[in-house]
Amino acid sequence: MSIEENVAKLDALVKIIAPGIFALTVAMVLLEVVVLMLRKVQMNHKGGVVSLISGIGVFGFEAVADFFFYLALSYWMYAHRIFELGFKWYVWLACFLLFDFIFYWSHRIQHEVRLLWCFHSPHHSTPEMRLSSAVRGSVIEFIMTPWYFIWMCALGFHPLMFITVRTFSRVWGVLEHVHESFVGYHPWLNKIFITPDVHRVHHGTNVQYLDRNYSEILSIWDRMFGTYEEYNAKPVYGIMKKIDTDNFVQVQTHAWIDLCNDLKQTASWKNKLKLLYMPPGWYPDGRDFTANTLKKNLAGVS
Q1: Domain range annotation of the chain
Q2: Which residues 6+ apart lie within 8 Å of 158 measured at CB?
Q3: What is the mean pLDDT of residues 98-123?
Q4: N or C: which end of the chain has fewer CB within 10 A?
Q5: pLDDT tens for residues 74-87?
Q6: Are 276 and 119 in contact (CB under 8 A)?
Q7: 84-98 pLDDT, tens digit each
Q8: What HEC string does 9-74 produce?
C-alpha cells in the first residue's frame, strides 16, 4: 500500500480525534476520582465539575473550529508548502521537536503577556492538581491557540503528521496533571521530560515557582532558556488573585474583567497599550507585582 493510500485512510481518523481524546480524558478523570475516593483522598468535587464543564467547552469549540476552519486551513497551507518533507522517520522527529519547541514559547508568552494571560489563566485557577485540572481552560482559547502551530503545515509537515504530534502532546499534557499520590519524584526522568512533579512546579503560586517549567514534553527547552525549576517545596496551586474557583463564570471572565477595568482607569493610550503586552502584575502607576519582581524581592535583590 502506497504512502498516499495510507494517508487517505488515516485522514479519515482526523475527524474523530478531538472527540476521541476528550472521551479518553473524561474516562481517565473519572477513573482517577474513583481511585482517590477509595483511597479517601479529599477532593473539591464542585471544582472538578467546573473543570469538566470548562473541558467540554474547550474541546467542543475546538472540534467545531477544526472541522469548519482550521483543518481546511492546514490542508490549504500544505498544498502551498515551502518544502517537500515526506514521511520519513526523521521528518516525524523534526515535526515533534518543532511542535514541542513552539509549545514552550507559546506557553511562555501566555504567562508573560497580559492579554494572552487572559486566555490562559482559567487553566491555572484550580487550587487542586489532578487530571480534571488538565481540562480546565478558557472556552475561547480556540481563537488563539491553533495559530501558534498551524503554520507548520506550510513548511511541509503533512496535516496528518501535525495532528498526530499534537494529539500525542495533548495526551502527555493531560497525564502531567495526575494526582501526586500516583506518581512521585523521578529526578532522572526530569532531566529529559516534563513529568508530573515538574509540571506541579509550573502550577505553583510559590514565588520561586512562578513562570517556570513551560515545556510540554521535553524539559530541555526550560533548561536551555533558563526557566527550569526543580521541585523542592510543596506547591500552593492556583493563581495569585483570589477568586471563587468553583464559579464557572468567574473562572472564565475574571482576568478579562480586571484588564478592562485597568484599561478604563488608564488615561494614556501608551499605557493602555502597555497594559496589553506587559506581564501580569505590571501597572502604569508604578506598582509592580510581576513574577520577576516578586522573585527579586524574595532573593533580596533591589
Answers
A1: 3-184
A2: 7, 78, 85, 87
A3: 98
A4: C
A5: 989 999 999 999 99
A6: no
A7: 999 999 999 999 999
A8: HHHHHHHHHHHHHHHHHHHHHHHHHHHHHHCCCCCCHHHHHHHHHHHHHHHHHHHHHHHHHHHHHH
